[in-house]
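User: For a benchmark we're assembling, each entry needs the component sequences followed by a predicted structure for the full assembly. Here are entry 17's components. Please fill in the structure.
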Amino acid sequence: MAASDDDALQVLSGDDQDDGAYSSDFEEEEADSGEEEADLDEEEGDFDDEDEEDEDSDEEDGAADGNVEANDSANHEEIREALLDYIGNGNAGADGDEESDDREAADESDSSEDEAPPRNTVGEIPLEFYKDEEHIGYDRAGRKLKKQARKDQLDSFLDRSDDPKDWHKVYDEYNDEYVELTKEEMGMISRIRQGKLPHAEVDAYQPYVDWFDWDGKGHPLSNAPEPKRRFIPSKWEAKKVVKLVRALRKGWIKLDKPKEKPRFYLMWGDDLKVNEKTANGLAYIPAPKAKLPGHEESYNPPVEYIPSEEEINSYQLMYEEDRPKFIPKKFDSLRHVPAYAEFIKEIFERCLDLYLCPRTRKKRLNIDPDSLLPKLPKPKDLQPYPTTCFLEYKGHTGAVSSISADPTGEWLLSGSRDGTVRVWEVQTGRCKKVWDMGGSVFCVAWNPNPALPVVAIAVSNDVVLLDPEVGDEEVQLNIAKLLAVQPSTSEPTENTPLIGWKRHDKLRGIQLSHQQNVVRVSWHNKGDYFVSVSPDDILFTFIYLFSFFSVELNASKRNNRAVLVHQLSKQQSQNPFRKHHGRVADVLFHPARPFMFVATKMHVRVYNLAKQELSKKLITGLQEISSMALHSGGDNLILGSKGAKLCWFDMDLSVKPYKTIKNHKEDINAVAFHKSYPLFASCSDDLSTHVFHGMVYSDLMQNPLIVPLKILHGHQKGVSDIKFHPTQPWLFTAGADSVIKLFCN
Amino acid sequence: MDAGERQVQVRFTTRLGSDLRVEATAFSLPVHLNRYGLSQIINTLLALDGPRPFDFLFDGELIRTTLEQLYLSKNLSAESILVLEYILAVGPPELQSSQPEKDWVSAVNGVNPSLILSGSYDSFARAWFPDGTCGSVLKGHSDAITSIAVAGSSNDTDLDVITSSKDKTLRLWKVGSFDRVSIIVPLKPSSSTLSSVRIFKGHAASVQCVAANPSNTQVCSGSWDSTIKLWKIDSEDEDNEDEQALKKRKLDGAKQSIAQVTAFTTHKEHTQCVAALEWPEDRYIFSASWDHSFRQWDVETSINTLTMTCSKALHCLSVGGEGSLLVATGGADPVLRIWDTRMPGTVVPVLQLTSHTSWISSCKWHRQSPKHLLTSSYDGTVKMWDIRSKVPLQTVEAHKDKVLCTDWWREDTVVSGGADCEFKLFKYTPIEWL
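Assistant: Structure for entry 17:
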C-alpha cells in the first residue's frame, strides 16, 4: 500500500514539474476524455492476454514496442489504483481511524493486485541500488528486466510532439515505463487541484437527517460551561488518599499476596470422595475393600503356605469361627483348578456385609497414652528415702500394734498384743525397757516435747502414762512430779470427774480409766495435752438404728465420751464434744494452731478449739477411715482407709481430696508423714509399705507434688503401724509378725 | 601350663629382706595366674621351708584378679613387662579367746598393750589381760557403757580409763597395770572391783563416745544432746571442786565420794547426736555425727575448722592413713567411706569400700600401718581392709549377732564385742604392717 502511495506521489510530483506545460491545455482536452477512455478499454482487453503470455515465456530481454505498450497499460491500471488509494486515504483522515481500518481490510480483499501485479519484483528498496545496473529488477520468473534505452532530450521531444496523448503520460520509475492517465484520472486530478472532492458523485453536503426524536427528552448534554471543580484537585479525594496511604503504612490494610497454588495436588481429586458430603449432609463412607488374593490363594502356592495333614486335622478341633476359611492347595496347572465352591456364598456374604452393615466413622483420638501421664521426677532424684532394711527389733511375742519414736530419734517405743510395751535403742536394736501392761496394747505415743519424755499407752480400757527414764536428772525430777497423782482439789464440786487419774497399780505412772477400749492416744505438739479415743461400736450402731427412740438418750450419753482431751500438767480430763457423727477412728491435734481433726467413718471434721466450733468438714469419699496423719505444716492431711485407698487433703484447696491413690491391695493400717523430709508412707495388711515423696511447697500457688517412690517388703504378716524417724529419712514398720523393722536410705 | 596359652612377662620386686628376694629377671608366666599362683611361684623360686603366702602389688593396688584381667583392666600392652611388687600376705586370723559376758559388749579398747578394756550393756566395764582373764570390773555407771578411752601409757603405774555411758555421764577410773602381776590365777570378776575416781557430768542425754588426747590431759565426749564437751582429766580447779564435792559428800552422807568434773568447753555446731570422736593430735579433734557430717575442731580456739558432709548418718570415725590425713567413716549403710581431709568441700569420698551387708558399727585404722583398716558390722563380721584393694583382706564371721565394737590390740590382734554377749580376740600371724 505504502509503495503504491509513493508511486502516486511520484506521479503527482511529475505532474507538478510539468505544471506549466499542462495547465494551459488541461481544460481543452477535458472534452475528449470520454473518447479516449473507450480506446483505453479496448487496448486493455487486447493486452491482457499478451501479458499472460509474457509471464509464461519471457525470454527475450529486448522488449518490443507493443510489449512496452502492454506494460504501460498495466501500469496505468496500477496508478489509477494508487490514485484511488490516495484519495481514499485523504477521505479517511476526515472520517476517523475506524473507517480507515475497514477500508484497509476491504483493500486487502480486493483482487485488483492479483490481476495486474507489478512487473518489477525488487520490492521496496531505494531505486538508486539499480542506478548503475543494466536492469531495473527482476520479473516474477526471476528474469532480469532490462532498462529501456534512455532517449535524449530531442528524441523525447519529438516523441511528445508526435504522440498526441503524450501530455497525459507519466513516467513510472519503478517499472521504468510510461503510464498513460485515463480521462477519469485526469478529471480526479483536476478536481483535487480545484480543491474539490475527487469523486464527482460524492455529495459532501447532503441535507442533515435528524434521526433522534427530540420531543420531551430534554437536553442530553448541557451547554453550560465546565464547572470550576473539574479543574481543581478534589480535597476529599486527597483526604481519602492520605487515609489509605496511612492505613497502608501502619499495616491496617494488608495487600493480599497472590495466593500461591499448591505445587502438588491430587490429579484426580479425592477418589473416594470421603470428604464430600451428600445433599442430606451425610458423608459418604466407602466400603472397606475386599482383601486381595495373595500367595495363599494362588493355584500353585509356595510350599510353606500349604498346610500339612496334621495342621488340617487340627483345624477340626478349632471353633468354626477360628477355622481358616480357605485352605491353600496346589494344582499342576491352571486347567486343573476346579470351580470355587464358595464363590457364590462369599460374594453373597460380601454383599450382605456391604448393605447390612451400617458404616459409621469412628473418631479415634490418636494420643500416646504415655503423654497423658503427669511428668513426675524420677525417684532417683528424690533421694533420700527409705529403701533397705538394716535393723530389726526383735523381742515381742505378739503382733506389734503400735510404735512411736522419741523426738530426738534415740529411742523407739512399741506396744504389742502380747501385753508388753518396749523401749528400743534405735541405733543398736537393743531393748532397753519392757513394761508388762497386763492387757492388749492398742496404741503408744511418745510425747513430742523433747523436754518431757513421757509416754502414753492405750491398754484395753486405760490410758497409762509412764516415764521411759531417758532424760537427765532435772527432767526426771519434773516427770516424777508430773506423774505423781495430785489429790483432786475439785472433788466435792458437782458430779464425779469424767476420768479418774489414778496411780498405776504396778508401774510408776498414772492410769486413766475409760469406760470403753481406748484405741488411740495422740499428743499435742507442745506435750501438755493429749487426746484419747474410745469409741463404742455396739452402742454406736444402736444409736444409728434407733436414733429417734428413747434409747437414744442413754446411748448418746455414753457415745459422747468417745473423744476425751486430757491435760497432763493439771491432771484434768475434759470432753469437748457433745455428740459425734459416727464412730471416731482417729483424732489429731494441729501442730501449731488450736485445731483438732476428728476422723469418723467417712468424714474428717476440723474443730476450732479456741472458738469451739466446727471449722471444716472434709468429704473423703472413703469407705472407712482407718488412720490419719498430718503434715508438719498442718495444712496437709493424709488418710488411710479400709478400702485400701489413700487420700491427700490440701486444706487450702478444698474439702475434697487433692489426690486419692489406690495403691494397696488390702486395708491400709497406718499412714505417716516425715517431720522434716518430704516423705510420707502407708502400710497395709498386704504386707507392704509404700513410700511416697510428698513435697509441700510454701508457695500457695503450687500444689503438693506426690511421687510414689518405693514399696518396702519384708514382713511376714500385715504391717500394723509405721513411723518415720524424726531426724533421719528412715522408716520404722511394725508387723503383726511381732518384728519391727527399720528401713534406711 | 600348656604351651598354647598366652604368656606375659613378669618381673618381681620386693622391699622385703634379702632372704625373701628373688632375682630381678623377667619371667614368662601364663595369663591365667592369680594371686595364689603367683605366690606359689615365689615360693618355688625362694625354695622356702614352709609355704608363705605373698600378696602382689601392681601400681599401688593389690592384685585380686588373674593377670589377664589385670592386663585388660589396666589397658596394658601384652608385650610390656609387668612389674609386680610382692609383700607378705596377711593370713586368716585365729580365734585366740572368747569370753562370755553378761550382756551385749558395746565398747572395746586396745590402746594399751598390757590390757584390754571392754564395756558392756550391763553398765560395767572390764579390764582383760592378754591371756583372756578378767582383771577388774569397773562398776559405777547406771546404764550401758557406750565407749572407752584410755589416757596414759603403759609405763604409768596407773592407767586413766574414761568410760562414757548412756546414763549421761563419763567416769574416770584408775586401773593399775600392776594388777597383772597380782593376778596370776584368774579371779572372779567381782573380786577386783574398781570404783571410779571422777565423774564427768553435764551432758543432757546419753554420751555416745569419748576420746582422750595423746598427751593424756584432756578428754572429749560426744552425746545425744548433739554437743561435744571437753573435760580436763586432772583439773586444776580440783580444790574448788573438792570443796563443792565435800559439801556434797557431807550432804550425801554415806554415799561414796566421787569428785565431779564439769566440761570446760562445749561445741554445739552439730545438729544431731555426736556418734564418734577421735583425738589424733593435741591440736584437733574429729567428730562424726548423725547429722551426716564429720567435723574437725581446733582445740585451742574451739573453732570448727573443717566440715565434710556425707549422705548418710555417721556412726563411727577413724583417722589414719599416711600422715593421719585420711578419715574413715561408717554409718547407717554398709559402705565404708574414706575421705581425704586435704580436699575440703568435696562431696565424694576418695574411696568407698563395700563388702558388708549391714550397718558398719565401728572402724579403726591400724595404729602403725597407714594401709590397714578394721571394720565391724551388724552383719556379724569383722573385716580387715587394705586400702590398696577394694576387696577386704580378711573377713571373720566373728559373732552370731551384730558386732558392736572392734579394735586393734598389740598390732596383730583384733578384739571385738557383739550383741551375742561375747568378747573375742583374734590373732593374725605376725606381719610387717608397713
